Every structure is written in C-alpha cells, then in structure tokens.
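PROTOCOL LOG
Step 1. Enter all chains and additional molecules of the complex.
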Amino acid sequence: MPPSNLMKTSLSSDFRRKRTRHDRSSMTEPLIELNDVALRFVSYHDKQYSIKRAVLNLLLQREDPRPVSEFWALRGVNLRIGMGDRVGILGHNGAGKSTLLRTMARIYPPTSGTLSVRGIVAPLIEMGAGFNPELSGRDNIFLNGALLGFSRKEMAERLEGIWKFTELEEFADMPLKYYSSGMYVRLAFAIATEVEPEILLIDESLGVGDASFVDKAKARLKRVMEKSNAVVIVSHDMESLRELCTRGIWMDHGRVVDDGPIDRIIDEYIERVKHPA
Amino acid sequence: MAELRSVWPVIQNMVSQELRVRYQRSILGFVWSLLNPILMMITMTVVFSRVLGRGEPAYAIYLFSGLVPWLFLSGSLTESAYCIIQNEGLIRKIYIPKLVFPVSRVLFNLVNFLLTLGALFLLLIPLGAKLSLAMLFLPVSIVLFGVFVLGLSIGLAVLNTFYRDCGHLVGVFLQAWYFMTPILYSTRDLETIPLFVKLNPAYPFIAQFQAIIRYGVLPSGSMILGSLILALACLGVGYAAFKSHEDKLVFRL
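Step 2. Run joint prediction.
Step 3. Record the structure below.
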C-alpha cells in the first residue's frame, strides 16, 4: 500500500489494523521512516499557565512575562527502519533516545520533518503500555488490545498465550493497581509480544523484573524478531543490546551520531565514554 | 470522523469498563444505576412538597423533566474538563487519538442519562402523568442535546488542558448556568421571559424535554430548528478547536 497522503505524520494503515505484512510491495518499503525530523520541547515557566494570567495580561496591557525556554530534543534525524531490523539505540542520559522512541510510537508529533509509520506499533515505554490501574488484568488486556487495534475476539484468542507467558492467570480479576511492578511489566511485555506487532518499541523496561523473567523475555523477543518484524530497543545494557540487536544507533544531543552494525557502534561508544574527545 | 470510527472499539471498551467499575463492586450492581436517580427524585418530591409547599405532582414532573437532562450536561462537562489530564499515563505511553477521551466521557454520561430517563418514566405513572404521542419525539431531542453537549465537552477538554484553572471555573459557571435555565422555575410563571433565558443556549434543549414530558406536546418548530443549529455549531467549533490543538496536548501534560 503506497503512502496515500503526505501529512506531517502519514500513515498508510489507519489506526485500526490493516495487515500489510503479506502485501508484496510492502516488503521493500521501510516500516518507519523519519525525514529530517526535529522535535522541540517548549518548557513554560509553569506549564499550568492560566486564564487568570491571560486575563490579567490583557487587562493590564502587559506583555506575557512567561519565560519560555526552548529545547530541541531531536534535530535533523533521518532514519529508515525496515523489516527484520533489530535496532539498539544508545547514548548518554538525555541524548534523546527515549524521545526518539516516543516519536516513532507517534506519541510526540514532530515539530518539523516527516514521520511515516506502517503497521502496528506496540510501544513498551516506562514499563506499561497504556493500562488503566482501576481495571482488572483481563480487562486491561482487552483495553490494551483495542488501543493496538485488535478486537475483543482477537484478544480473547490470545488470552491463553498471555497467561501462559506471564503466569498471572490467578490474578486475572485483580485490579492492576494491586500488581507488583514486576507483574506489571510481565503483563505489558506479554501483550506487546503476543499480538506480534510489525514494530515493537522497548524502552529499558527489560531491566525490570527478576533474572528468570529477563531470560524468558529475551527468548520470547528473539522469537518475535524471527517473524521479521522490526524491533527497536533503548538500553544502557550493552550486553543485552549486543545479544539482541544487529544495528546500532548512537544518539547525542538529539542527533544521530552514528548508525551501523551493533558491535562497531557499541565499541566506539565505549571507547568514547572512556576517552572523551 | 473516519478516525473516530476506527477507534470505536477503544471507546466502547472504555465506556463499558467505566460502567462496570462504577456499578460492579456494589451488591446491588446494576440496580444502583436505576435506584440512585429514583431515590434522588423521591427525595426531591418529598422536600419540595413538604418544605416548599409546591407539592403538586405536576411540579415534580416538570422539575425532573428539566433536571434529568441538565445532569447529563453538567456531568459530561465536569468530567470532560479533566479527561485529558487524568489520562496522562495513557497518552504518554501509547498513541491514541485524543478525541477518544471526551467522546467516551460523554457517552458514559449519556448511558446514565438514558437510565435515569427510564427511571423517570417509572415514576411518571405514580406521579399521575399521562403518556403521550409526543414522547415518540424524545429520541430526536436526545440526539440534538447529545450533539450539543458533545461539542461543549470537546471544546472544554482542550481548553482545560491549556488553561488549568478552567476546571475551577466550570463548577461555578455550571451553577450559575443552572439557575439561569428554567428548571426549578417555569417560564410560564413569569410575566416576561428574561434576557438570560432567551439567550441561554441550554434553554431550547431543556425546554424540549419539559414540553414533551411535562406537557405532552411537541416542541415548536422554531425551537427544534434553533437547537439543531446550535448543536451543529457547537460541535463544529468544539471539533475545530480540538483538532487544531490535538498535536500540542501531549506537551502540556
């Protein structure tokens, strides 16, 4: 399916799922494409700027004194991520890794440049993937499934697989707010992988949970990867990145510094950290 | 609109779960949804007849026919004002068309509204009201009113996310609006219709329900046309305001 229109964020499949996986022409097109993407955060002195102040400013004829500082979290990012890509994003804290992931997940719309995403994106950001803590585990599976574009029926078919991986079936009717953070992560991870999304975005959340879960998660992740979907992982855990990824993207100050085979990128990154230029 | 249709399962999910959360963990469960308004209406009938001396059942019917739709409006607006802010956790973790939130708030309140209307009909007979053919027009009035409320709610949802003190004003504003709308009193008791009633955008909607339920007559054509124009204008403005700011919402949380 060709990109139909050139909006800032163009989507050839709409929010609900239209499977393009078996579409031959789609095999060569990238799943995620960023062209000269920039993202600006504007931090307002206090972000809760109010009607009271707006009215006062108007009445007193004064300039809005709100000190606004701008911050470019991403600048000039060009990326193409295709079928089967296993991408690890690395960089120091505040380099824009998580922001890049959120942009790919369409949570942050780019300030300039274009972003196009094809297929279902399952984001795992800050452990959790769009849950309602008041609802039970089972209800959250359906809610999360609906957010990813899966009907109740389609999710019902996947319930068993999710319970099997998480071993949480006995807590299915318990509201999510009583889950431990480990259980929370397990559930989020299980849903995101069980639906076999075209694009899986993971933000450090694999580090949470105990060792046996991490191993299990890695094994499951490898299986998902074999289905030639794209996986993008943000992590500071170089060993995991080496193990899971084939391609590395090095971010610094909101720019892509380097993009290449994971081993080379990691080696250069470690070298730079040890001997700052 | 195509986008809205595509996220319909999400909305459905949110509304049905919200309903379950509200009623499920109580022994009486679903019965609450009917019992609650019935108890409220009985209390008010008693209070108004014993204390204020406006005891005639006709007044009770008049009061409820305006109050029940008003509660739908005030409930929707109060909840929509905070719906984006409350769902920060969701919005910052997964892509979701933000329109889902005010729409599901309004739908949730609409379901409650319909249940309360049902309860009102159960009370109509004991109160001595007679059913009339005009009641067949009620679905049209409900749709018109629903569109009006949806437009306001969408607009308010985006406004309150940008101007956080808006939420405080909503309560006060609704209170004032309530008294400016003929719900407790009737325009038939007034010698002249005050300007604040004539210009009151809620009046043509509320008056429709009163005409149908209390007086058993069809609303006038001008009232229906007026409310149609008002509802569509409201939805248009609310939708445009929401869409033009939707992209910026996530940065304001």
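Step 4. Note key features.
Residues 2-252 of chain B form one domain.
The radius of gyration of chain B is 19 Å.
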